[in-house]
Structures are given as C-alpha cells and as structure tokens.
C-alpha cells in the first residue's frame, strides 16, 4: 500500500479545519453530526481541534448492494440523532465521492428543522462528483483512487491506519479471494 497522506499532514490539516469551524461557529449552537462509521477517527480529532462550545451527535449511512466503485442503495438510520431544531449542524463524513451520500444525509437532517446544515469531509474525490452540492469544508482534494485508513475502510477493514493509503489493484483483488 502506498501512502497518499501522512499522519502528520492529516493532523496539521485537521487543526486548520478546527480553527475554521471555531471562527465560523463562534456564538452559534453548533452540532457536529458524525456519519458512522467512516467519520469516527476524524470526529475524535476534529472536535479536539475546535475551541467553541459544540455538541456531538451520530447518524448512520450505509449503502447496500454496491461494489467498490458503484454505490448501492443508500440507507440512512437517524435513530441516534438528537433534537437538532434551531441548531447549526455540520455533517461530518470521511469522504465526498459521488456526493450522493451527503445529499441523502442533508435531506434526512433537514427533517429535524435545524437552523443551518453544512458538510465537512476529510477527502474530496473531485473527479467523481455527481451532485450539485460541494463539500462546505474539506481537508484534501484527492484523485480518483480507492483509499483506506483514518476511518476509511475496504470490506470494513483498514479503518485503524493512522494515514491515508491507496490500495493497490492487487490488494483489492486478493481480499475478494
Ligand atoms: P458517495 O455517496 O459516492 O459520496 O460515497 C460516500 C461513501 O462511499 C463514503 O462515506 C465511503 O463510505 C465510501 N467511499 C467512497 N470512496 C471511498 C474510498 O476511496 N475508500 C473508502 N470508502 C470510500
Ligand atoms: Mg463508509
């Protein structure tokens, strides 16, 4: 596996994102809504880099019947989402790929009648965007390659890696067996 973004590059950028959120949400009722499961590592680091009062909440997004390159049917589980009425929500995910997940999340979150909804992601695969929105905050733009680590998975593995790595075509095949 090849390293695309190192642990220290991520750490520096996450601190910058935290500083940006701290400025933009000063005096506002901020809720950072982490998307399970991919955002958990970023969530833990970003909230500690953010100096304004905030709440943390979780929502789940999963896609069924998809493949590595084409997502399946999006299913959003809002069962864990607390009252967001009047709050300024930042939906935090690991990656903005086609953008369809974020669009679905925005629809689900808007039903809770928040004051505002924005998106933040660590990675943005700019070449694959299929929707009319773009991430409001992002860490890094990346090329169209399959990446893992820092929360991102392949077959639910590799999330624990502290860096972002690119899976080689060989590794992707060998996991399939
Ligand atoms: P989107 O709906 O196409 O934007 O896809 C978003 C979801 O696809 C993310 O939350 C990830 O779970 C998954 N995903 C997309 N690209 C990658 C990747 O390169 N590595 C791991 N997961 C990915
Ligand atoms: Mg995911």
Structural notes for this entry:
With 177 residues, the chain is α/β, with parallel strands linked by helices. The chain has a single domain, classed as Rossmann fold. The chain has a six-stranded mixed sheet, with helices on both faces. It has a three-stranded antiparallel sheet with strand order 1-9-8. A hairpin with an 8-residue loop joins strand 3 and strand 4. The longest helix has 18 residues. It is globular and about 50 Å long. The protein starts with a strand and ends with a helix. The model has no long low-confidence stretch (mean pLDDT 95). Inosinic acid binds next to strand 5, helix 3 and strand 8.
For the largest beta sheet, what order do the strands appear in spatially? Answer: 4-3-2-5-6-7
β-strand amount: 25-35%
Terminal residue distance: 18 Å
Q: Assign the CATH architecture.
A: 3-Layer(aba) Sandwich
Q: Approximately how much helix is present in the residues?
A: 25-40%
CATH topology: Rossmann fold
Put simply, the count of helices is: 4
Largest sheet: 6 strands, mixed
**Low-confidence regions:** none
DSSP strand tally: 9
Rg over alpha carbons: 16 Å
**Dominant shape:** globular
Q: Please provide the ordered H/E string of secondary-structure elements.
A: EHEHEEEHEEEEH
The CATH class assignment is Alpha Beta
What structural class do you assign from the helix and strand content? alpha/beta
Average per-residue pLDDT, rounded, comes to 95
């Amino acid at each position: 596996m090849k390293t695309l973004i190192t642990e220290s590059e991520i750490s520096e950028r996450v601190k910058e994102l935290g500083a940006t959120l701290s400025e933009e949400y000063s005096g506002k009722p901020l809720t950072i809504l982490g998307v399970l499961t991919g955002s958990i590592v970023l969530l833990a680091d970003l909230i500690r880099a953010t100096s304004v009062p905030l709440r943390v909440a979780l929502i789940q997004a999963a896609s069924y019947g998809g493949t590595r390159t084409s997502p399946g049917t999006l299913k959003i589980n809002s069962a864990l989402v607390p009252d967001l009425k009047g709050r300024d929500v930042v939906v935090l995910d690991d990656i903005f790929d086609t953008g369809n997940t974020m669009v679905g999340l925005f629809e689900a979150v808007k039903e809770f009648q928040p004051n505002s909804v924005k998106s933040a992601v660590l990675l943005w695969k700019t070449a694959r965007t299929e929707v009319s929105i773009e991430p409001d905050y992002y860490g890094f733009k990346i090329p169209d390659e399959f990446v893992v680590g820092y929360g991102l998975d392949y077959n639910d593995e590799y999330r624990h890696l502290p860096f972002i790595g690119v899976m080689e075509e060989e590794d992707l095949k060998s996991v399939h067996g």
